[in-house]
Amino acid sequence: MGRRGSASGWLVLLLALLAVSLVPSCSAAEVKTSPTEWSLHLPLPNGVTGAESLAFDARGQGPYTGVSDGRVLKWGGSSVGWTTFAHHANYRKFPMCTVPVAPSEETESLCGRPLGLAFHRKSGDLYIADAYKGLMRVGPDGGEAEVLVASRSTSSTASTSTRPPAMFTSPTAA
User: Fold this and answer.
1) Side-chain-side CA neighbours of residue 51 (13 Å)
2) Sign, CA torsion 160/165/169/170
3) Domain boundaries, position 120
4) For the segment 65-80, what is each residue's pLDDT rounded down to a tens digit?
5) In the sheet that 126-130 helps form, which strands lie side by side, from edge to edge?
6) Could you tell me which residues are beta bridge partners of residue 86?
7) Mean pLDDT across the stretch 100-114?
């Protein structure tokens, strides 16, 4: 009986080793990379961080991006660089927004923080989702953005606070 138990133990061990040897070994898959000779690094102006979102208009201009001081910047090519395309209504009233005197984490509740951008294909309007100012819109030529739906932090003083937010699909879907 001792030999039988010993033989069956060896048989189980042999079958386990055979099963393990038949299982394909794990290996890391090769990571495909893109050639970088066609990439371009666009450094942002001093004192701002981003980009949280990038968008191109229907004319193929841009990119446009929101940055930590509340502005939306537009890339005008290497000869022009970044220019201010849009900002909220009170942007120029707060000196700390236009001249960086404190880290953006301390000023963004006043200056805004655009986190999402999308162009409406037909109108050319840019819709801006700002963490502090709410949903805003600016025309195709840029400038001061109009608040469509104020954020909760500003809704008590906003004229849109008395009506519920309108449901809408992506502005690029129209």
Assistant:
1) 19
2) positive
3) 54-163
4) 999 999 999 999 999 9
5) 114-119, 126-130, 134-138, 146-149
6) 72, 143
7) 83
- Single pTM value for the model: 0.67
Count of domains observed in the chain? 1
Kindly give, in sequence order, each residue whose CB lies less than 8 Å from that of residue 150, ignoring residues fewer than 6 positions away.
133, 134, 157, 158, 160, 161
pLDDT in tens, 8-36: 778 888 777 777 777 666 666 777 777 77
Work out the end-to-end distance of the chain between its first and last CA atoms, rounded to an integer number of angstroms: 82
Secondary structure (DSSP) of 9-45: HHHHHHHHHHHHHHSPPP-PPPPP---STT----PPP
- The DSSP line for 58-91 is TTS---EEE-TTS-EEEE--TTT-EEEEEE-TTG
The answer to whether residue 84 is domain-embedded is yes
**Which amino acid type is present at position 129?**
A
170 is a domain residue: no
Residue 9 lies in a domain: no
Partner residues linked to 149 by β-bridges? 135
Q: How many CB atoms lie within 10 A of CB 96?
A: 14
46 within a domain of the structure (yes/no): no
